[in-house]
Amino acid sequence: MNANVQFLFITDLKKLEQYYGPRSYRYAMLHSGRLGERLYLAATAMGLGCCGIGAFYDMEAAQLLKLKTGSKLLYLVAVGLVKQKG
């Protein structure tokens, strides 16, 4: 990935469920999607490109990021310069 910056949305699902209950995962995904949309809008306003990634292998992502047990990568948004055609 050749992005200038990557935003990772990570949560501790066990703590989240204690606070929000059984729908905590749904709330976390909705909230990360809303934040990702704001990144899209900001990047576009600054003339940058933006790409959200929400589909990845959970176990591989957790190992790569060295997440503790119970934590999960929800969403990743990459922001950077757009390659110019020409």
Write the layout of secondary structure elements.
Blueprint: E1 5-12, H1 13-20, H2 24-45, E2 49-53, H3 58-65, E3 71-80
Antiparallel strand pairs: 1-3, 2-3
Helix pairs in contact: 1-2
**Main sheet properties:** 3 strands, antiparallel
Rg estimate, integer Å: 15 Å
Mean pLDDT: 90
What gross morphology would you assign? elongated
> How many domain regions?
1
Helical stretch tally: 3
Helix content: 40-55%
Number of strands: 3
Uncertain segments are: none
Q: Would you give an account of this structure?
A:
The chain has three helices and three strands, in the order βααβαβ. The two termini are 21 Å apart. The protein has 86 residues and is an alpha+beta fold. The model has no long low-confidence stretch (mean pLDDT 90). The protein has one domain. It has helices spanning 13-20, 24-45, 58-65; strands at residues 5-12, 49-53, 71-80. It has a three-stranded antiparallel β-sheet with strand order 1-3-2, sandwiched between helices.
Can you describe this structure in just a few lines?
The protein has three helices and three strands; from the N terminus they run βααβαβ. The protein is 44% helix and 27% strand.
Short key terms for the protein model shown above:
3 strands; three-stranded antiparallel sheet; 44% helix; 86 residues; alpha+beta
